[in-house]
């Protein structure tokens, strides 16, 4: 029986452990310094907002692990002694392994700003960050968030839920425009402002100032403007958490370097999830994938390889979803922030300015390449299928109603979308059913 150690009890490490158990009888130990049990990091905001308690964010009952013979160790690993195949823990204990899976996740970025380590200044990644945010935001009235992105907007929503005023500094011209195309970035920017957030575009942080009590009292922008606050949220992205391996012989770049089998340069050591970086990225994918479902897929894949069913990571069609306050966002395939050479797009936005959909397609073949939707929930399975089958845009338009996730909860906009499509691209126009008939078909 081999001893398999997994460092990290997030979605990647836990998926690896569960699938290793399904596939064999190895001795499996999952180590984490953060929490005793696996929890959903994506639900951290709901704990703060009072919608959930911590125990509700645990996808498995605590007895699940013992019952499945997966040992959990709560400790920080301080060093990996690669040549001895031993882990050294922070408390001095050691543990031998035959196979090691690194699933150490990410950490919040900091860029060396003066004052970035003051009390009252923090990022949001771990459970400990959540506890700190609880303390740091007690009885305060004004906060500044630095850096627009998914975690920044979650933090803004969290603070607003406690009536704390938020100023949001973003370096970009429009919100998250390093990822979102201009129309979507502008829609979300407007939505953020409607929530009475003071969104300051093209504004950078210069310095964070301390008050007499040593805590944060203000930030200073690159235009030397001082903004008083009692809390600063640093949400300028995350980076692979590779501190543990930096001094070892395991090769790193921004993340821990792996091949398509998630193997590092050292035999019997693998890396999965947010901490891993592909030496050769898959076509149209980033070398580091920092989302929940890819962590799960990588965990499953590595378990197969370790269990003698060597399997390359083939993640299929890219998908991600998130929420910007009340607006749900889904993205399928490739929608870059700017159209690429061979690409064209069809964009529709509802008159309320809170719903939109974008189809990116190959300009020559008219094949669908990617879809962004805001405020309209689409069926994952259908979009995935259309992208895999390389459907042409007229086909997609003709069958658009099939992609509507929940006709009972969501009003349908197919009629308006298809009409607008026909108007914009008469050469690809598709027949439009009467609104009433279309609606009755799907109600
Ligand atoms: C607030 C927030 C919201 C998010 N929302 C979304 C979302 O809506 N959708 C989405 O797809 N993704 C979202 N993400 C990203 C997603 O949560 C991550 O991609 C995912 O959790 C990464 O999983 P992982 O298992 O690779 O790493 P992690 O979940 O980071 O787990 C790594 C674990 O390893 C532990 N560890 C690290 N080093 C050591 C060590 N030396 N010793 C012991 N333990 C160690 C860490 O403490 C941690 O517990 C969100 C992230 C955050 C922070």
CATH topology of the largest domain, which one? FAD/NAD(P)-binding domain
Task: Say which molecules are bound, naming each kind only once.
Answer: flavin-adenine dinucleotide
CATH architecture of the largest domain: 3-Layer(bba) Sandwich
* Overall morphology: globular
Major sheet summary line: 5 strands, parallel
How many structural domains does the protein architecture include?
3
User: What structural category do the secondary elements indicate?
Assistant: alpha/beta
CATH superfamily of the largest domain: FAD/NAD(P)-binding domain
CATH C-level class of the largest domain is: Alpha Beta
> What integer is the average pLDDT?
95
Instruction: Please list the strands of the largest sheet in the order they lie side by side.
Output: 3-2-1-7-19
Low-confidence stretches: 436-443
Distance between the termini: 56 Å
Helicity, as a percent range: 10-25%
How many H/I helices?
A: 12
Describe the fold and architecture:
With 443 residues, this protein is α/β, with parallel strands linked by helices. The protein folds into three domains: 3-107 and 239-306, FAD/NAD(P)-binding domain, CATH 3.50.50; 121-236, FAD/NAD(P)-binding domain; 319-441, FAD/NAD-linked reductase, C-terminal dimerisation domain (Enolase-like, domain 1), CATH 3.30.390. The chain is built from twelve helices and 25 strands. The strands form seven sheets. The protein has a five-stranded parallel sheet with strand order 3-2-1-7-19. A five-stranded parallel sheet has the order 9-16-10-11-12, with helices on one face. Strands 21-22-25-24-23 form a five-stranded antiparallel sheet, sandwiched between helices. Helix 1 (11-23) runs parallel beside helix 8. The longest helix has 15 residues, at 292-306. The radius of gyration is 24 Å and the shape is globular. The protein binds flavin-adenine dinucleotide. Flavin-adenine dinucleotide (FAD) binds at residues 7-13, 31-34, 41-42, 44, 76-77, 103-106, 124-125, 150-151, 154, 241, 244, 273-274, 290-292, 295, 320, 322. Flavin-adenine dinucleotide is lined by residues 7-13, 31-34, 41-42, 44, 76-77, 103-106, 124-125, 150-151, 154, 241, 244, 273-274, 290-292, 295, 320, 322.
């Amino acid at each position: 029986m081999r001893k398999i150690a997994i460092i990290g009890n997030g979605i990647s490490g836990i998926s690896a452990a569960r699938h290793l158990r399904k596939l064999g009888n190895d001795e499996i130990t999952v180590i984490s310094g953060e929490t005793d049990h696996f929890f959903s990091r994506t639900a951290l905001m709901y704990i703060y907002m009072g919608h959930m308690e911590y125990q509700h964010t645990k996808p498995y009952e605590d007895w699940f692990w013992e019952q499945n013979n997966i040992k959990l160790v709560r400790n920080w690993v301080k060093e990996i002694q690669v040549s001895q195949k031993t882990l050294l823990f922070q408390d001095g204990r050691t543990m031998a392994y035959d196979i090691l899976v690194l699933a150490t996740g990410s950490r919040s970025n900091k860029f060396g700003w003066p004052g970035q380590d003051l009390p009252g200044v923090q990022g949001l990644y771990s459970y400990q960050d959540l506890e700190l945010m609880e303390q740091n935001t007690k009885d305060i009235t004004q906060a500044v968030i630095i850096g627009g992105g998914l975690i920044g907007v979650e933090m803004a929503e969290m603070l607003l839920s406690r009536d704390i005023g938020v100023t949001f500094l973003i370096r970009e011209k429009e919100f998250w425009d390093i990822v979102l195309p201009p129309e979507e970035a502008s829609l979300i920017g407007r939505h953020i402002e409607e929530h009475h957030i003071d969104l300051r575009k093209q504004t950078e942080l210069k310095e964070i100032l301390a008050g007499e009590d040593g805590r944060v009292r203000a930030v200073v922008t690159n235009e030397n403007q001082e903004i008083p606050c009692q809390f600063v949220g640093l949400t300028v992205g995350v980076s692979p958490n590779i501190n543990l391996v930096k001094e070892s012989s395991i090769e790193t770049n921004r993340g821990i370097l792996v091949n398509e089998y998630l193997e590092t340069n050292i035999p019997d050591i693998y890396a999965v999830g947010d901490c891993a970086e592909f030496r050769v990225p898959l076509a149209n994918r980033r070398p580091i994938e920092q989302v929940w479902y890819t962590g799960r897929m990588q965990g499953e894949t590595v378990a197969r390889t370790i269990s003698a069913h060597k399997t390359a990571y083939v993640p299929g069609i890219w998908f991600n979803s998130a929420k910007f306050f009340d607006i749900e966002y889904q993205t399928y395939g490739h929608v870059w922030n700017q159209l690429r050479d061979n690409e064209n797009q069809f964009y529709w936005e509802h008159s309320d300015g809170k719903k939109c959909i974008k189809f990116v397609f190959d300009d020559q073949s008219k094949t669908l390449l990617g879809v962004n939707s805001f405020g309209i929930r689409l069926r994952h399975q259908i979009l995935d299928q259309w992208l895999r089958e390389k459907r042409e845009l007229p086909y997609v338009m003709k069958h658009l109603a099939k992609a509507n996730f929940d006709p009972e909860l969501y009003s349908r906009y197919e009629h308006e979308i298809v009409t607008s499509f026909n108007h914009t691209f008469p050469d690809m126009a598709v027949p439009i059913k009467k609104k009433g008939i279309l609606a009755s078909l799907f109600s």
